[in-house]
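Action item from last week, closing it out:
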Amino acid sequence: MDYFPYMVREEQKKCIEFIRKNLRRANICIQAPTGFGKTIAILATLLTKRRPIIWAVRTGNETDRPIEELKVINKKKGTNFFGLSYRGKRDMCLLAKEMKLNSYEDVSFLCKSQKECKYDNEIDFNEILSEPLLYSEILDLCKNWGVCPYKFQRLLLPFADVVALSYNYIVNEKLGWSIRKYVPFEESYLVVDEAHNLQYACMGLNSDEISFGSVENSLKEIEKFGTDESREIENFLLNLKEKLMEERVSMEKREEEFDAVSFLKRLNRQISLIDVFSSMQRYGNIIRREQLKLGKRPRSSLYHLSSFWLNVIENIHTEGIAFIKRRSKKNFYIELFDMRASVILHDKWNMFKKCIFCSGTLAPIDAFAETIGLENYVGKTLNFSFNKNRIVALITNGISTKGEKLSKEMALKYIEGIKQFIESMNSNVAIFSASYRIQNGLLKAGLKKIIESTGRKFFIEKQGMSGEKARKILDEFKECAYCDEKGVLCATATGRFAEGADFPGKELEGIFLVGIPFDKMSIKTKLYLEYYEKLYGKKKGNYYAYIVPAMRRASQALGRALRGEGDKAVLICGDERYREKRFFNLLPYYFRNNMEVVNYHSIRAKLLLK
């Protein structure tokens, strides 16, 4: 416990001993609930190894947490460890902030295009290495000194005991080189936080799409910036648009698999498509430079369009990459969908001394390891000692969201159960629906009116809601916990409030989970299932690709109300399918250990007895 700065709990001791015992021989997977203290337990243990620690998180906003704990260790233990929360060019380029650029691609192009930058200045930084630095602290220092924050933080990397950064620097080879140059991966320990997101982060990073709009905007760019040499590109784009329109008209459903081989053959038989798209890409770069000269964002639809099709050609026969076409009333989309998480990630883990993966919803650990290509590992599940009398866990009979549609009759049954749940509690509660489709069905059946009739303040997460609007709703909902008029938050188990939000203490004391949050059975989901069944076999493939992700979402949603040992909560899994062994065994331990079955119309009576 050399560097552990707090009073250590028994479960944290077990975590530390498990890491110490196994780190030399294997990678480590740890499941422990939010509020357990995973970050400090892992960090304090690894610091004793005196090797660099790379701490990978889902988003840039989460990079500060391990650095904040490092500051506490220094203060309480009298150590002088150095670390920093590392961000990409989009967050660290002062010139880009002045131009209000907000995409990585734009900022990267801006940086490469600058022969001279007013922030490219030298500075002596040795005097600041005594204290770990958060992203905001680096940014403020560099603003004051007039130096480039991105280059400055890279100069700090070789001196860092801990570097906190996003998954992208591990998953994306193009980004990873910028770190490996300064921090030797083979000598470093990698910690992947909230590791259950790895699979989807990898897939999202490598997927892409274009639309009619991409082609139309490319034509506008040619019209504005074109020369006689660009006439052939313009003609090719018109042909591409025509062929995409034919593809759209031929569709029988709103979403279908796209035959990229057949489409490219029809597009042009006389010329090399690689040469054409490469020429378009070069011209797109010229347009980006022209935009920059005009003081505009260096963005080019022609560049993106050509890059997309070159990627399609390169991966047209790659196992695990699918192509999908999708139409709406006004537009048409082609998507490249990369499902190869285990293939892409497999070789990443061997680059490091050892890796530690942690999350509150990692189980089943064997399934997690296999889907990220992890072979040499040991796993452990650690839990709080929750007071059984402070947790009510119910599975409801008589209601289910099973089927393509939520009938009005079933929606009314759900509303009756939800009403009883709300009326039995004088605290903030959340209704997490399995999808927006389910949520909309409940709203159409009168959910909002029923909630407001109970004297509660109604809050709702809407699809496509901005981050700013979501933060405002979250703050107002939390404030209700300390007022007479309590709040009811209606959100989805796939949205930001069901995983990313934190509700300590009184801020959330009841959750009603409506249905099981499976992926919508779209063409994308079907292709994903087919790929996993091919990789792992039919039964295991379905389990890995469909059941486990749904139950992780359910577990994340239920966990919003329990953030520490002293919390209390009423948790209702509102779907009789949760009683089935294949689902029940994947629910959190605190739910399984307290579970009772109740009819949906008897929820009030059951809760009043508690």
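Closing note: Residues 208-338 form a domain with the Fumarase C; Chain B, domain 1 fold (CATH 1.10.275.40).
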